[in-house]
Design goal:
- The chain is mainly alpha-helical.
- It is about 65% helix and about 10% strand.
- It has 4 helices and 2 strands.
- It has a two-stranded antiparallel sheet with strand order 1-2.
- α1 runs antiparallel to α2 (about 45-65).
- The radius of gyration is 18 Å and the shape is globular.
- The relative contact order is 0.18.
Length: about 130
């Protein structure tokens, strides 16, 4: 049952938690961690970077989930579509969601929907046998 939950909802929830706790002043580009590399350069991780990495990991798992062929995959695709619609509505309506971090997460949710349907249609075509 838990495998039906679209994982792209996790970055959505994480982003909104930051908005609720940090308000509109959430600084997505402020460095949270800084590492000195062997080259002497500084690599900084921002809150936006962490959200995007989490979204990429969720997208990877979602694409793996879309390769399953079962009756539950239709529900999974429907829920993924609803998550994308939630991203889109929030991006258009909520002032704090008008950032490039949220936009990129929204595009990842769209890719999840498109990949899920594409993989399912492709694999369903292979399941059909004509005698």
């Amino acid at each position: 049952m838990l495998s039906l939950v679209p994982l792209m909802i996790l970055p959505f929830i994480g982003y909104n938690l930051v908005l609720l706790t940090g308000g509109f002043a959430a600084d997505w580009g402020a460095p949270l961690m800084s590492f000195t590399m062997l080259s002497g350069g500084q690599w900084e991780m921002t809150l936006g970077d962490i959200i995007l990495v989490a979204a990429l990991l969720c997208l990877f798992v979602e694409i793996l989930k879309s390769t399953r062929t079962s009756n539950a995959s239709v529900i999974d695709h429907l829920l993924s579509t609803l998550v994308f619609v939630a991203y889109l509505v929030e991006f258009l309506v909520v002032k704090g969601a008008a950032t490039s971090v949220f936009f990129i997460c929204m595009i990842m949710a769209l890719i999840d929907v498109m990949a899920g349907f594409s993989v399912s249609i492709r694999s369903a075509g292979r399941d059909v046998s004509l005698n």
